[in-house]
Specification:
There is one protein chain. With 292 residues, the chain is of the alpha/beta class. 39% of the residues lie in helices and 18% in strands. It is built from 9 helices and 12 strands. The protein has helices spanning 16-27, 33-38, 58-66, 97-130, 148-157, 175-181, 184-195, 208-217, 229-243; strands at residues 42-49, 53-54, 71-74, 81-82, 88-96, 136-138, 171-173, 201-205, 221-225, 250-254, 272-274, 287-291. A 6-stranded parallel beta sheet has the order 6-11-10-9-8-7. A 4-stranded antiparallel beta sheet has the order 3-5-1-12, with helices on one face. Helix 1 (16-27) crosses helix 4 and helix 4 crosses helix 5 (148-157). The radius of gyration is 22 Å and the shape is elongated.
């Protein structure tokens, strides 16, 4: 997992800073009436975790308060699992009272969402590890518009693979691409001509025959989409045996996977299991901020 190699915050692009500025502007586009009441007296606030989960999103919270001339001291580091007790003091925020409160809601919303994604990602990964799966669990591109960076970051904190970040990171040829291009072979040839050697190509396949065509055409990854658990395991094994020594490729399984059924898809022939259940519609971890 990425977190075992280096600091995840070093992945963040400089563009996340103006994004946070936009969130702060959205929350206070005019007069700050509450801030008028409290003023800029130096203050201190406790950041409290009210429900169990994994802390994720610390660099985003840091940047929210940095832009408001405040500081954050973390008592529980990112990736730490908060045990099931209420009001765990995870960080202290210091700065002008008005500015602490200006950043409160943006920081809490981001932290709650990112931590929820990390918590669910880690949970589903643990289910797969207990079932004997040692390969990759990944998210998908089904993220909240404007919030993808935070959700993908949470997936990484939870120990999973973020999958492709956007349409430019890797080509995934889906059924609509193939229909419009005329065939899998034509679609793969076209995208390889444009993307060159540096771009990986994945093809969404609905049958074993489509997977064979994709592998023959030079796909780097074949996705077995919406297969049954038995069908996915059988097809992955068949593909690996048939193409052994002839073509190098990965088998990804996706479509309809949930916390309840994902263990049934475990197979040494499946290189990647991808599911939006680790980041889409997951429960938040609840936090609050209390001025001392």
């Amino acid at each position: 997992m990425a977190v075992s190699h280096a600091t995840l915050s070093h992945l963040l692009p400089p563009t996340y800073q103006p994004t946070i500025s936009a969130w702060l502007e959205e929350d206070c586009p005019g007069f700050d009436y509450g801030g008028f009441v409290v003023g800029e007296t130096p203050a201190e606030a406790k950041l409290l975790a009210k429900t169990p989960g994994i802390v994720a999103g610390a660099p985003i919270v840091d940047e929210v308060f940095r832009q408001l001339d405040c500081t954050v001291e973390w008592h529980h580091p990112e990736g730490h699992r908060i045990e099931p007790k209420t009001n765990t003091h995870i960080a202290t925020v210091r700065g002008p009272c008005r500015k602490i409160l200006l950043g409160e809601r943006v920081a809490l919303n981001t932290l709650a969402r990112c931590s929820g994604v990390a918590t669910k990602s880690a949970h589903v990964l643990s289910l797969l590890r207990k079932a004997g799966y040692s390969n990759i669990l990944a998210g998908t591109r089904k993220t909240t518009p404007g919030f993808r960076l935070v959700e993908k970051y949470g997936i990484l904190v939870g120990g999973c693979d973020a999958h492709r970040m956007d349409l430019s990171a890797m080509v995934m040829l889906k059924d609509n691409h193939i229909t419009a291009a005329g065939s899998i072979s034509q679609a793969v040839a076209a995208v390889k001509a444009a993307g060159g050697f540096a771009l990986k190509v994945e093809v969404e396949c609905r049958t074993e025959e489509e997977a064979d065509e994709a592998i023959e055409a030079g796909a780097d990854i074949v996705m077995l989409d919406n297969f049954t658990a038995e069908g996915a395991r059988t097809t992955a094994k068949s593909l690996k045996e048939r193409w052994k020594g002839r073509k190098e490729f990965l088998v990804e399984v996706s479509g309809g996977l949930t916390e309840e059924n994902v263990e049934a898809f475990v197979s040494p022939d499946v290189d990647v299991i991808s599911t939006s259940c680790i980041h889409q519609g997951v429960p938040h971890v609840d936090f609050s901020l209390k001025i001392l």
